[in-house]
Amino acid sequence: TSFTAVYAALIAVINTKLPLIGELMVTRLVLQFRRAFKRDDKGLCISSVMFLAHLSNQRVAHEVLAFQIVSLLLETPTDDSVEVVVAFTREVGAFLGSIVPRMLNYVFDAFQSILHEDRLTHIVITRDILILGPIKVIKTKISKISKIELAQTLTK
């Protein structure tokens, strides 16, 4: 997972000249994610979702795909699905917040409802850290991004 961002950037460069390669990569990753999700293979689920997150950041995969993944995983939250969504949101949340902030607020609201319902069993103590951590990180990234964009528009 340490080189995932590099591989996604390489795919993004290749995608500019050969768009079918990017489409093929996204299709294969979605199929891999679906198989891992059906088998409850958390490791494979996280790795495929992380690659998809980086491809979304590079604009190879559409942001609607990212929201579909999040909504699928939060439909019936389990310990593993919440872990996967938190990892995914840490990687792609700032990008999604800059594109469609309403949808990111939906994800945050879902996180808050999961915290208040106490339905998860495995992540009893670290649940607050897992879920509230990305919310703080993403909100600071979004505020930094918006400050940078504001400074760029003021200098133009």
Binned, the helix content reads: over 70%
Major β-sheet, in short? none
Low-confidence stretches: 123-129, 145-156
Helical segment tally?
A: 7
Instruction: Tell me the span between the first and last alpha carbons.
Output: 38 Å
Regarding quaternary structure, what we see is single chain
Order of helices and strands: HHHHHHH
User: What percent of residues are in strands?
Assistant: under 5%
**Mean pLDDT across every amino acid position:** 80
| Estimated radius of gyration | 16 Å
Question: What class, by secondary structure content?
Answer: mainly alpha
Globally, the shape reads globular
Please count the beta strands (DSSP E, at least 2 residues each): 0
Question: What keywords describe this structure?
Answer:
156 residues, mainly alpha, 7 helices, 84% helix, globular
Layout: helices, strands, pairs:
Blueprint: H1 4-17, H2 19-39, H3 42-57, H4 63-75, H5 79-99, H6 101-117, H7 127-155
Describe the structure concisely.
The protein has seven helices and no strands.
What does this 3D model show about the protein?
This protein is mainly α. 84% of the residues lie in helices and 0% in strands. It has 7 helices and no strands. It has helices at 4-17, 19-39, 42-57, 63-75, 79-99, 101-117, 127-155. Helix 4 (63-75) runs antiparallel to helix 5 and helix 5 (79-99) packs parallel to helix 7. The longest helix is centred in the last third of the chain and has 29 residues, at 127-155. It is globular, with a radius of gyration of 16 Å. Mean pLDDT is 80; it is low at 123-129 and 145-156.
